[in-house]
Design goal:
421 residues, mainly alpha, Zincin-like
């Protein structure tokens, strides 16, 4: 392939992906607006018209803001590639550092840091304007800045050795991409194991679930489903947001069950048990393992493609890199370009991932209905829809691209089949 051909292909995919996103946003805003004045029949006795309108307004605001995010991301991508931004950064670093692995590592860190800096105004607006306007923000500017610095430090501590190892493999090993894939696989498994005990506590306070009826219900559910856990915890999610959630962290017998404090205050014991049963369903149906396997397979394919592209001059020149920067000692450019541009080419197939995730959600709901009350899960979900101002009427095509969970109406209808008369 000639460089100009790849430039045209890359530009075409940017345009196509951007147009798809704009059309999806337009459809979402139009559909949610049209349905805002009437609560769907399945929810009329559970959600008020005022709550439904709030969810519609919240959804529309977030969708419209996503277009600003899209515009900025496209602008940054073009600035770093076709407009020569990477050339400028690499030239500047070469004036201050000798070529080699550490110069390449710093180049990757610099691009990552600049992208993070550019995103700060959007993140602040999202948190302190949009979330605050709809009553969800609990975060202070001090905590926002603290989280930002913690993320940077953590990223540097973890990222620098990892990047340096991958660059070393690229410089010294023939089939480096295979070694890099193995390294990333081991790294991913290690992060999953260490996250609940080393990483998550940096940002949140974990407290064992206190003795009482809720804890007894949880232990009873774990016993009858044969699930082992290292502990049941609550975290102080309310210090950042009014949204509620629950999740599992860790691997093997070291798994932890984690509830946001906002979730526990908004649901009764029957509902909490049903939500937990749903999460247990993901483990019982091997969803976590299946997703990991798929992730590793896709990662393998990605590294194989990168291994090929790293040796193609048209890949670099077609993305705006000056020919004199393309050399064996500048493999950082391959990593940066691939990581920035891969999403442009893969976005059109996003519905496949969405479909797979929704299938798992239905299966987990079915498991929850078997080990708890389906009605309790329905009421819990409706409560979460209401408390989180989640729209009940998303546009079908927009949801197909972006939503990992089925639309509310379809999910409730699926659960009603399991309700005991």
């Amino acid at each position: 392939m000639k460089p100009i051909q790849f430039t045209i292909l890359f530009s075409a995919f940017i345009l196509i992906s951007a147009l798809i996103r704009v059309v999806l946003a337009y459809r979402q805003v139009r559909h949610v607006s049209r349905c805002a004045d009437q609560v769907p029949n399945a929810f009329k006795d559970r959600i008020t018209l005022e709550e439904h309108k709030k969810a519609a307004a919240y959804t529309i605001t977030k969708t419209q803001f996503s277009l600003v995010d899209l515009l900025l991301n496209v602008g940054v991508l073009l600035a770093l590639t076709l407009l020569g931004g990477l050339n400028i950064l690499d030239h500047w670093l070469r004036l201050h550092m000798s070529p080699g692995i550490w110069q390449q590592t710093v180049l990757i860190l610099l691009v990552t840091f600049l992208s993070s800096i550019i995103d700060i105004p959007l993140a602040a607006w999202r948190q302190f304007k949009i979330e605050a306007d709809f009553g969800f923000n609990r975060m202070t500017p001090k905590l926002f800045i603290a989280d930002l610095f913690k993320g940077w430090v953590l990223g540097a501590v973890i990222g620098i050795p990892l990047i340096a190892c991958i660059l070393w493999l690229m410089n010294t090993v023939s089939y480096w991409w295979l070694g890099a894939w193995a390294l990333m696989t081991v790294f991913s498994l290690a992060i999953q194991a260490l996250y609940p005990v080393l990483i998550a506590p940096i940002f949140n306070k974990f407290t064992p679930l206190p003795e009482g009826a809720t804890r007894e219900r949880v232990h009873a559910l774990l016993a009858r489903t044969g699930f082992s856990s290292k502990g049941i915890f609550t975290i102080d999610g309310s210090k950042r947001s009014g949204h509620g959630n629950a999740y599992f962290a860790g691997m093997g017998k070291a798994k932890r069950i984690v509830f946001f404090d906002t979730l526990l205050t908004g649901l009764n014991d029957d509902q909490i048990e049903a939500i937990l049963a749903h999460e247990l369903g993901h483990f019982a149906r091997k969803h976590i393992i299946k997703r990991m396997i798929i992730s590793f397979v896709l990662s393998f394919v990605g590294f194989a493609v990168l291994g090929y592209l790293a040796n193609q001059l048209w890949f670099y020149i077609g993305l705006g890199v000056h020919p004199h920067l393309i050399a064996a000692e500048n493999n950082a450019l391959a990593l940066i370009l691939f990581s920035m541009c891969s999403s442009v080419f893969t976005f059109p197939v996003a519905p496949l991932g969405s479909w797979f995730s929704r299938k798992h959600e239905y299966e987990a709901d079915a498991f929850a209905a078997q080990h708890s009350e389906a009605n309790a899960l329905i009421s819990a979900l409706v409560s979460l829809y209401k408390e989180n101002s989640s729209t009940l009427t998303p546009d079908a095509l927009h949801s197909l691209f972006y939503d990992s969970h089925p639309p509310a109406s379809l999910r409730i209808a699926h659960l009603q089949k399991y309700c005991r008369l």
